[in-house]
Amino acid sequence: MNELVIILGAGESGVGAALLAKQKGFDCFVSDGGQLKNAHKAELEENGIEFEEGTHSEEKILSAALVIKSPGIPEKNELVKKIRAKGIEMISEIEWAYRYIGDSRVIAITGSNGKTTTTALTYHICKHAGLDCALVGNIGISFARQVANDPKPLYVAEISSFQLDDIVTFRPHIAILTNITEDHLDRYDYSFRNYINSKFRIALNQQSSDYFIYNADDEVTVQHIKEFPILSNPLPFSMRKELLQGAFIKEQEMTVANSDEKLQMSIYDFALKGKHNQYNTMAAGLAASVIGLRKDKIREAIQSFEALEHRMEHVATVRGIEFINDSKATNVNSTWYALESMTKPTILILGGVDKGNDYAQILDLVKEKVKAIVCMGVDNRKIHEAFQNDVSVMVNTGSAAEAVHASFQLADKGDVVLLSPACASFDLFRNYEDRGNQFKAAVREL
């Protein structure tokens, strides 16, 4: 097979795509405009895969039969435009992996918020029930790497809108859409509509034997669902109404009804606390019931799940002040969910790279629950403008350690310090994990 497969971007998904291409006998070449991580470099060398870093050999790339593009590279990239103009097929690593899974099935989860927790919980339930499955996509290892190195009969995949943009045949047996709120608009020409279209692509190729699980309380989802020709079986979940098919919570009890069988469980038995996690638990519970897992196994797994790092993670209580790390909150809606679950006076740490945020969404919750805002970013003007009339104490800090110290000074015994930034982290940190880790380290040094 002499067809040249080019992989653009050599992060986890790019290296995974290259390993799969090599295994399937393709001539492949990896091109990254930045610098590769040493581990990725070593892996490519070890497998005899050609690569380049810090540059793109345009002529070679434009001679490809197929290009697999990293989700981080936008359509407006000049090289991407040239590839499109030449009519070369360009797909995402998710699509590439899907083409080689054979009879295996996929549970795919997307959404603006809650997708990581929902994916991890769904995987935990499947593992607990004894299924041979893998956790792939945005969480865990890349889908293509898993297919190349250790194929499984079931894949539980967290999938971003960027990955969905470049699918062609990708068809999950179960698709979950947690919710849609304004996010990443810089990648979608500042059009919310484009972003909505992207999220619904998760159900694009589904057939009548598949399932589409969605949040019936999410106004954007419900408003637009009829505009898409979804052929799969709809399974909504809600806290506002009882459903004959789907999942709902009424009087603190969750009911999951996917056939004649019903699973019922008190929300007080959920390992994950907070209203947003009740939605995530309903979605995961529905997916588990669709694939036919036993009710007792689903119940046990929901009770035993451990929360993920950087997502409403309790760090420590210091002199009666609780510190919570929600660094994964990179948009306003995530911060809304975090604040909504707060029951004590809160010192809120906000800030970072603004992705076109509308802070009005959290203003009511801030008025109700927040006694001080600690800004942690290079440019905090927009946060000051949004809250200066409603929060009497606002301070600027330029590092995680400074933010922790300032919050500790402002807090009283019985208060909570909540890092839930509503912004991307790239102004001061490598990524949200780095931000969360620096926050935790600073708390532990108090």
Automatic annotation (TrEMBL):
Gene3D superfamilies: Mur ligase, C-terminal domain (3.90.190.20), Mur-like, catalytic domain (3.40.1190.10), NAD(P)-binding Rossmann-like Domain (3.40.50.720)
GO biological process: cell division; cell wall organization; peptidoglycan biosynthetic process; regulation of cell shape
Location of the protein in the cell: Cytoplasm
EC identifiers of the protein: 6.3.2.9
GO terms assigned for molecular function: ATP binding; UDP-N-acetylmuramoylalanine-D-glutamate ligase activity
The organism's place on the tree of life at top rank: Bacteria
Alphabetically ordered keywords of this record: ATP-binding, Cell cycle, Cell division, Cell shape, Cell wall biogenesis/degradation, Cytoplasm, Ligase, Nucleotide-binding, Peptidoglycan synthesis
Pathway: Cell wall biogenesis; peptidoglycan biosynthesis
Function: Cell wall formation. Catalyzes the addition of glutamate to the nucleotide precursor UDP-N-acetylmuramoyl-L-alanine (UMA).
Family statement drawn from the similarity comment of this UniProt entry: Belongs to the MurCDEF family.
Protein name (Swiss-Prot/TrEMBL): UDP-N-acetylmuramoylalanine--D-glutamate ligase
Native source species: Flavihumibacter solisilvae
